[in-house]
Amino acid sequence: MAGKQRGTQKEKEERKRRRRGGREQGVARYKTCAASSAAITDPPELTSPAPELTTPAPEPPKVHPTKTCIMSDIQQAMALLISTFNKYSGKEGDKYTLSKSELKELLQNEFGDSLGKVSDKAALDNIFKDLDADKNDSVDFKEFSTLVVCLTQMCHEFFTKKK
């Protein structure tokens, strides 16, 4: 046997087509995915009615009818992280930050008991104080993502030591 066959003829042709598409096509595809995911993850305005439009609304991004937006697992995880943050932020005050009560609701609903008793006021105060790096009494996305990254690292260490 001369060597391992690397997929069917159709798969080989698909790989060649992707290589020929070049960087420009990949960037365009990523921009289309980013634009379509932004429309999904932007939080709705909850406090005020829509303003009167004096100019026509911009056209939605044009997507080729036969091409689909395929995001990798990491891109899907990033989009989920952003949409989850946006789901809880802005219920009180600034829509780009979490207040202490919004953080509490997010932690209870999304992490459950994995962080311990979030309903314990002292524990919540400690978590909030540790996350609020700039001491502005709110947690922005960067500060929130620090929590998620630290928890992810702890889980990774825990499960790699078990083996």
Q: Could you characterize what this model shows?
A:
The protein is mainly α and 163 residues long. It has two domains: 62 residues, no CATH class; 91 residues, Recoverin, domain 1, CATH 1.10.238. Helix content is 57%, strand content 2%. The protein is built from five helices and two strands; from the N terminus they run H-H-E-H-H-E-H. A two-stranded antiparallel sheet has the order 1-2. It is extended, with a radius of gyration of 22 Å. About 18% of the residues have low confidence. Keywords: Calcium, Metal-binding, Repeat. This is EF-hand domain-containing protein. One of its GO terms (molecular function) is calcium-dependent protein binding.
Question: Which helices and strands occur, and which strands form pairs?
Answer:
Elements: H1 9-41, H2 73-88, E1 97-98, H3 100-111, H4 121-131, E2 139-140, H5 141-161
Antiparallel strand pairs: 1-2
